[in-house]
Amino acid sequence: MEESNSNNSIVNNVARAIVAALDWNSTPDARKAAVSYLESHLVRLRWEEFSPLERRNFSNVAVELMSEMADPCEEWALKSQTAALVAEVVRREGLNIWQELLPSVVSLSNKGPVQAELVSMMLRWLPEDITVHNEDLEGDRRRLLLRGLTQSLPEIFPLLYTLLERHFGEALSEVGRQHLDVAKQHAAAVTATLNAVNAYAEWAPLSDLAKFGIIHGCGFLLSSPDFRLHACEFFKLVSPRRRPADDSASEFDSAMSSIFQILMNVSREFLVRSSSTGGAVDESDFEFAEYVCESMVSLGSTNLQCILGDGNTFSLYLQQALMRDLMSKPKLSVHSSGDGSSANSADSSSAPVDNEKRKILSFLNEDICSTILDITFQRMLKKERLVTGQALSLGVLELWSDDFEGKGDFGQYRSRLFELIKFIASIKPLVAGAKVSERIVMIIKNLLNSPMPAQDLAVLESMQAALESVVSSIFDGSNEFAGGSSEVHLALCGIFEGLLRELLYLNWTEPALVEVLGHYLDAMGPFLKYFPDAVGSVINKLFELLNSLPFVVKDPSTSSARHARLQICTSFIRIAKAADKSILPHMKGIADTMAYLQREGRLLRGEHNLLGEAFLVMASAAGAQRQQEVLTWLLEPLSQQWIQIEWQNNYLSEPLGLVRLCSETAFMWSLFHTVTFFEKALKRSGMRKGCVQNSPTASSTPHPMASHLCWMLPPLLKLLRAIHSLWSPSVFQVLPGEIKAAMSMSDVERSSLLGIGNPKLSKGALTFMDGSPFDVNKEGHTEPNETDIRNWLKGIRDSGYNVMGLSTTIGDPFFRCMDIDSVALTLIENIQSMEFRHTRQLVHSVLIPLVKSCPTDMWEVWLEKLLHPLFVYCQQALSCSWFGLLHEGRAKVPDHHNILTGSDLKVEVMEEKLLRDLTREICSLLATIASPGLNTSLPSLEHSGHVGRVDMSSLKDLDAFASSSMVGFLLKHKSLAIPVLQISLEAFTWTDSEAVTKVCSFSAVVVLLAILTNNVDLRGYVSRDLFSAVIQGLALESSAFASADLVNLCREIFVYLSDRDPAPRQILLSLPCITPNDLHAFEEALTKTASPKEQKQHMKSLLLLATGNNLKALTAQKNVNIITNVTGKALPFYLIAFLFVAVLWKCAYEFTLLSISARPRNSVNTTGNTIEEGDSVGLAAIL
Fold it and tell me: In DSSP terms, which residues pair with 949 in a beta bridge?
């Protein structure tokens, strides 16, 4: 009886939905909801409950419903949803129903343009589960769908081609008759058909696309201004298709060759047309040219073999692409008389390549590579770097303009140029080396003779990066330079020795010139690795440059000299890293020179720190013993001052002592440089990346810094505690005004929070890692001002936190020798008074590394004392601030000392940014706690063998996991668990997708422990509180990115805990649009599959049904997953892609790069041509 009532209810609901969908008097939302019910509930969830006859009848009704929607006035969204319903029916029922429905579908498409549009929409939705890689869909089902659709392509593709041909022609005819409304309908049908074609472009056999005319049809539409972008999408999708390994490879090559010819023809036509208009390119043409170029690059990246079939065509193309530059620029005169043979010998001596790649490389001769480098070198400078109105002594440059091309893209654009330079250098090292050397020497000569050297200095600076790219590519160990022929070695040695000689001869003393020269010398670092004889002269030159700059700064106008000195010291670090062991014989000489300069008082502490860091880099290549010796040599002088108890008692024993310290400028900055060097020592010590040794001896060797922690950290803790205390209310009240002002945010920090970029800094200002400036010229002044104190406070906090965090990563030596009480007192004592920005920094730099590194047997001692006060405070502060943001429009960030200043609007923006930053960092800490490495005893549910239910006899006590799972440890300690679980619940309701994603990983481990243990309280929390909070999170559109994780949490809770706790069922039944029958059908569907992916899909459909499609995270995700899957992808710039970019560079230059500079700055869109104005008919005006 109950089953009969259920069936009657279903029938009534279906009937009502169909009536509502067809009722024009219903609201659009009601009609869409009705169709959604039919698709998501009936077809997705309950399709298996119907008999074959009922399914066939419903399929026919769905097609009839689509026919009824074929009205010009109907909403596009409703038409698309109806088409999706029919497509879902076909996907569920399979190929047989499609064969039955096909005649009706074809007949419907013949009735008119609106009907054709609907049919194309349906064909577009049909392969959705193939084109949109839905993680909820099982592989077997996708394979069945793919097989069925592939068998149906002989019916689908002719239909699509017919619709394209028919309605494109009809659109042109109707425009000629001035029937614009009808023309719009035909144009909409063409667009819908192209969208459908694109849904098959990524996976349908290329031979079928060619055989049934799809490639030809889309190629023809490239000449139509109105449809060419949609047609370009097709070529973007098919160009990167991989060549099959079966018998169809020849058909694939033929189809890909025809695609190449189409793209060649359209690019040639574009070049001719743009040349005839004087190079003017409007926005529409530019977008079209970009699409074509992307397609050609993609095709070359994966299918260049298809192009090389006809050598004459490819050679002709290369000549066409590069002819203009070869005719207008002199050929490269190579320093070595045997460059051609040397280059060939370089190729022959390299690792063997297959014949196909060798054939490709043969087309890249020296003239082509030389021209590519010429073009590239012209494009590496921004217009804003040059002085307006002055002529360049180096001829024409293709300059990037921020005003026109955009400020945010130059970095990515230039990085692509560098990748191209590196590729040319790797295949033609002699050409690249000679070319870059020749240009640099020419620039230097022009600079020496220039009356305005600042003009050419910008060009010289830009070429430094090009030199670095060439040198690193040629002398990089991965290219096995050492294995090349002796002739190539000798030629390259001659080229770069000549360039180095030119650089060493320069006697520049101007700070800007000295700085650039230092950069050029450190760019030669990889060369020095293979030619160690030149290392000594480079080191001597760097010291010469350092001594040529003034040491005492009396005037702020000379601050550039101080900056240049620091940059020269930084060059020692870069050369030490690049030259590797070649620099080791010179360590004593460098040490002696450092000692001499220090005795003479000609080396500042900041400069000494940088040179000391270079020494640490050298020592890391010299072995553990030398590393220990260098650390002792560098740290022992610092320890003598650092461990003295007098300064600690004088300045750190009580809060106002820090005020006295800030008046002692020299000592204040001395402490700063000591702390920053501790940071450098920790970062640079230890084993080099890539030199990991797995021997027992290596693993048992103590960290080089381990023995220094016991004297290094205690004074640092006292210093940090004193700084933290400044923000406590009792101390803040008695501080002098200058200190209070210094505690406020810097302009750089405010700008960062407001998202408006950093304000311009003086030349003498260096920046910390987070962008905050430190003016090096203030070091040594006797009266620090507000800015100096602010920079000092920030510098000590930044480096001090990093020292603490890096020390924790050493492991046992830190946790065994440090007193937890003193660490907790320093870090947590004033947590209530900390600003959000400082709390975030503390968590990021200290607590997260500490949690990762803490030994399991020390969790009890360390974690509760540090984490409990933090979580209690953050739960209260974040909850209050988020409540204010969500309900009152402003985050209530604690600001006890009026740190946040500015207009109300700016303060609101800064408050929200501070709130989100701290929220994300706390959630990152939770994600770290839940990381697999800290929860080694927890199996995944799928791998543990549990499907649906867990054997009650296998449940363990929570204590069983507390020693090997940090989440288990945390849950065992209620004082820790309560604020953490509260944060994780509330985070689902905070509109921050990044925080939600991180909380999901933590909550997943909590759910797993609830499933695997017999803890009643934990099970109740997960089944009731967490389940409800996750559903609330899905109601927020901001959670769309994490929606898959949220749905999976719901699935795991329901599947594994609903039999042990009634809460999940009760919560679902409390949702507004669900019935007990719906829940019963859902549970029945779960019993029929053990696949987590299928279960997630059922869970998702039920949640949408139960909430009336009001879970914005799921509906937003659905709207993003467009069927054609044609969202922009990063270009595949792998090695072969670089080759093709090189080959096509001039073409890309013509219609994607050169057109940037050739386009008129005030271009007018001219796509609305009439029939009389040209061969192509424009529909843009009527669409």
Answer: 947
- Read off the amino acid at residue 428: K
Give the pair of three-digit tokens for residue 319.
């000549």
Give CA 531 to chain center in angstroms: 38
What span, in angstroms and rounded, lies between the C-alpha atoms of 242 and 240?
6
Q: Which of 32-36, 94-98, 324-328 has the lowest mean pLDDT?
A: 324-328
Q: Quick one: pLDDT band at residue 368, thresholds 50, 70, 90?
A: confident
Q: What is the DSSP string of 651-685?
A: HHSSTTHHHHHTT-HHHHHHHHHHHHHHHHHHHHS
Going from the C-alpha of 564 to that of each of 1, 523, 614, 1045, the distances in angstroms are 90, 16, 17, 51
For residues 434 and 494, what is the distance between their CA atoms, to the nearest angstrom? 10
Identify the H or E element spanning 205: none
Could you tell me if 852 and 934 are in contact, meaning their C-beta atoms sit under 8 angstroms apart?
yes
State which amino acid sits at residue 52: P
Alpha helices in 126-213 (DSSP H): 128-131, 139-176, 180-201, 206-211
* Selection from 769, 732, 772, 765 nearest residue 751 by Cα: 772
User: Concatenated DSSP letters for 762-829?
Assistant: -TTEEE-TTS-EEEGGGTT-SS--HHHHHHHHHHHHHHHHHHHHHHHTT-HHHHHHS-HHHHHHHHHT
Helix axes 95-109, 52-68, angle to 10 degrees: 20
* CA within 13 Å, CB half, 1052: 25
What are the pLDDT digits (tens) for 898-956? 666 666 778 888 889 999 999 999 999 999 999 999 998 888 776 554 555 677 777 88
CA distance 411 to 690: 28
Q: Which residues pair with 956 in a beta bridge?
A: 1013
HSE of 378, CA atoms in CB hemisphere, 13 A: 19
Nearest to 66 by CA among 86, 42, 88: 86
pLDDT in tens, 804-844: 999 999 999 999 889 999 999 999 999 999 999 999 999 99
Given a contact cutoff of 8 angstroms between Cβ atoms, the answer to whether 867 and 823 are in contact is no
In one-letter notation, the amino acid at residue 418 is F
Which structure tokens are listed for 1139?
Answer: 């080759």
First to last CA, the chain: 57
**pLDDT tens for each residue of 833-853:** 999 999 999 999 999 999 999
- pLDDT tens per residue, range 134-164: 444 455 666 777 787 888 889 999 999 999 9
Strand partners, 765: 775
Q: What's the chain's average pLDDT?
A: 78
Residue 681's nearest CA partner among 731, 752, 612, 734 is 612
CB hemisphere CA count around 1181 (13 angstroms): 12
- Run of H or E residues at 990: none
DSSP 1150: I
Among 394, 406, 397, CA closest to 376 = 397
CB-CB contact of 804 with 716 (8 Å)? yes
Residue 76: pLDDT over 80: no
Rounded to the nearest 10 degrees, the angle between the axes of helix 95-109 and helix 113-125 is: 160
The tokens 């006292």 sit on which residue?
Answer: 718
Confidence of residue 332 (pLDDT cuts 50, 70, 90): very low
Q: For residue 1125, name the pLDDT band (cuts at 50, 70, 90).
A: very low
Angle of the 1092-1106 helix axis to the 1112-1120 helix axis, nearest 10: 120
With H, G, I as helix, E, B as strand and everything else as coil, classify residue 388. Answer: coil
**537-545 mean pLDDT:** 94
**Helix, strand, coil content of the chain in percent (nearest 5):** 75, 0, 25
581-616 tens-digit pLDDT? 888 889 899 999 998 998 888 888 899 999 999 989
Share of the chain above pLDDT 90, in %: 38
Which tokens is 239 given?
A: 């160009």
Tokens 């800064």 sit on residue:
910
